[in-house]
Amino acid sequence: LSNINFAINGEADLNYLTTSSADDLVIGSGATTTIAALESGSYEFNELSFAGNGGLNVTGVTLSSEGTDAVIHTDVLDLNDKGTLSVSANIADGFDILVNDSDTYTSTLIAYDQLSGNRDNLQTSPNLGESAINQDNKVVAYVGWTGDILWNPEEGTGSGTVGMSYSVANVQLAADDDEGLVLSTENTGDAEESTLTALVTDYEEDGNVVHGDITFAGGNITIGGEEANTYHGNTYVKNGTVTLAKDAGFGETALL
């Protein structure tokens, strides 16, 4: 594969049926291959190769701090040339950005029976995937991730796994509907669990920028972190209090 965006979305996907029977799936120069995690089990390939800095994006993994089963199994992982790896997770209802924006997650992405080449040739993608936050059956924001590749070779066998360790990098506001992302907390103890430390930005897709809104709907919330927020949407404080623990906590909001 080269100069193409290629997607695999299930075991019955024609793209998967074609590539799984091939001797070698080569993710080549200019190619981005996106593979959506199965609900159970792994995709099976004879050989998975990277060339010309081609990119593999694994999406829809389950958020876990304990690790997960591999999304992909390949007999041979060929890293005689360069490639990149990216991950994004499904965000379930139990995810709370105030609590979880400081958590670290791990996902096993590739299991291999034999490694060919230099594992340093596989690097973290400069742009990890994004994960949608849904509230009331609509997407109100996206989580952007930052992370590193994890290698787990099995001593004496030549086999092993490749995964990623990742955490929240930013929250991208995606709904300009006079409400947007709604945040609230009942926490009265650990301040970290009621502090928004992730960078808050606008959402951009295909060159189109959305100036999404954010609503603080209850409890005592602190806006912290190190980087100045940059979002341009409206900010609403309907209940509770909001304490700014950094400059530009409200970004470049159009309305407060």
Could you give a quick summary of the protein structure above?
With 256 residues, the protein is mainly β.
List the defining traits of the structure above.
single chain; 256 residues; mainly beta; 5-stranded parallel β-sheet; elongated
Describe the structure.
This protein is mainly β and 256 residues long. Helices cover 4% and strands 51% of the residues. The protein has 2 helices and 20 strands. The chain has helices at 14-20, 97-100, and strands at 5-8, 25-27, 32-36, 43-50, 54-62, 72-79, 83-90, 104-117, 122-124, 130-135, 138-153, 160-173, 181-184, 195-196, 199-205, 208-210, 214-218, 220-223, 235-237, 241-244. Strands 2, 4, 6, 8, 10, 11, 12, 15 and 16 form a 9-stranded mixed beta sheet that branches. A 5-stranded parallel beta sheet has the order 1-3-5-7-9. Strands 13-17-19 form a 3-stranded parallel beta sheet, with no helix packed on it. A hairpin with a 2-residue loop joins strand 10 and strand 11 (138-153). It is elongated and about 60 Å long. The termini are far apart. The model has no long low-confidence stretch (mean pLDDT 93).
